């Protein structure tokens, strides 16, 4: 059982709890476990509430919310052992904590094997950044920004285009524009936070509130032998044009060991997969990017290069 982890960082008041509330109310067919520092700050809709016991709120949609009890690794171990186990874990960091330390803890080999860190998002309140120019030089704020795979500019519905563009330029000094997204009311497309599972979802996804960012998905499969070395070269070319890639592959160099590949933004990992690709396939990849920025023909041509002739 592998349960991916979403790490939510950002300053006090940036909108982290609003994002978590949205995830818990709109889990998109997933059982989500939210781990928070302040239980009282998570104002859960009464219609979702189920039972409350031992520091855990069990919601009627299968999600749970629990407070951070003791150290993070012990809390994660307890969450993973729940029955039924969650499909994903979202961790809200304290607004005064450096996510770099939490990331180091999550990279512990024992935890990473069962709860791999999948995505780090840092939330930024554009108005606060504009009102407080010194914030850009704050060491903690800069560390929160550097740790992010994606930066979410919150409360974007309250600001005009000129302000948002100004803030995008400031954040762009640290992160590429392709990693910066504007959101309102905590609404984020699930494809940005969680990679697609190779399996069918447990339940049909609910209709989610509309997001301002349309995404496109391309699936690529192969039945031919594949080269690991060529794959690593091709991924370097695909990364700038995709937000996520996830898949299971069998390489000619290791024909008996299926490999799980995951990339988010420019961070990618290769690890042994507990499952092989679907019957008869050597590759099963899902690529996600902004609508209009994924070229199916180019992707097919690039991935075709990894085939061993």
TrEMBL record:
Record's protein name: GTP-binding protein
For this protein, the record's Pfam families field holds: cobW (PF02492), CobW_C (PF07683)
Which InterPro entries does the record associate with it?
CobW-likC_sf, CobW-like_C, CobW/HypB/UreG_nucleotide-bd, P-loop_NTPase, Zinc-reg_GTPase_activator
Give residue ranges for domain CobW C-terminal. Answer: 215-307
User: What is the protein's species of origin?
Assistant: Bradyrhizobium ontarionense
Protein family membership: Belongs to the SIMIBI class G3E GTPase family. ZNG1 subfamily.
Q: What are the UniProt keywords, alphabetically? A: Chaperone, Hydrolase, Nucleotide-binding
Recorded catalytic activity of this chain's protein: GTP + H2O = GDP + phosphate + H(+)
Role noted for this protein:
Zinc chaperone that directly transfers zinc cofactor to target proteins, thereby activating them. Zinc is transferred from the CXCC motif in the GTPase domain to the zinc binding site in target proteins in a process requiring GTP hydrolysis.
